[in-house]
# Entry
Amino acid sequence: LAEQVVEIETTIDDLSPQIIGYTLERLLREGAREAYVTPILMKKGRPGVMVGVLASAARDGIRSLAKDVEA
# Structure
């Protein structure tokens, strides 16, 4: 059977680059297949990033970390 893969994305503004780097490292440690950051412009021209992760649908640790980042 083929494994289900999910893509989770969230946008973040006003966050230290060190925390973003740590988040990517932790996502990969938790079993993400891929984790990436894309620079974006938020409303009113503010800089931000979109953090994305590809992971097995069964990886609950990835989902809980994504919720931590969004909070």
